[in-house]
Amino acid sequence: MSIQACGRDETPGEWRAALLEQCGTYRLRIGAASRIAVMRVVRERRATPLSEIAAVVELLQGAGLTGTEMELRLLAGQFAEAGVPASVEALHGGQ
């Protein structure tokens, strides 16, 4: 397993599980924005397969995408850079 120095590689599963347990689960939702801008971020930043992009966009506009606080704040920042408003909220607290 390798972790890139810039910190943008996938978090190893056991580390991610520990973060979720200790720090809680968060949700990212996006606001009204260009669907193309949203799709571009989803494709480029999350490496989402083309066949799954529409479903991820719908999720982001509805129930939201869940994960660790930091991975979602990073993604929210990437959406902001693309002009897409995004918000991150805590769902479940950690220990």
How does this structure look, described?
The protein has about 100 residues and is of the alpha+beta class. The protein has four helices and three strands, in the order αβααβαβ. The protein has a three-stranded antiparallel β-sheet with strand order 2-1-3. It starts with 12 loop residues before the first helix and ends with a strand. The N terminus is likely disordered.
What distinguishing features does this structure have?
4 helices; 3-stranded antiparallel sheet; 95 residues; 3 strands; disordered N terminus; globular; alpha+beta
Q: Reading side by side through the largest sheet, how are the strands ordered? A: 2-1-3
Alpha carbon gyration radius:
13 Å
Structural class by helix and strand composition: alpha+beta
Which series of helices and strands comes N to C?
Answer: HEHHEHE
Write down the overall mean pLDDT.
84
Which overall shape is indicated by the principal axes computed on the Cα atoms? globular
* pLDDT < 50 stretches: 1-5
Number of discrete helical segments = 4
Strand tally is 3
What is the helix fraction of residues, given as a range? 40-55%
Query: Sheet bearing the most strands, described?
Result: 3 strands, antiparallel
Percent range for β-strand residues: 15-25%
Head-to-tail CA distance between termini: 28 Å
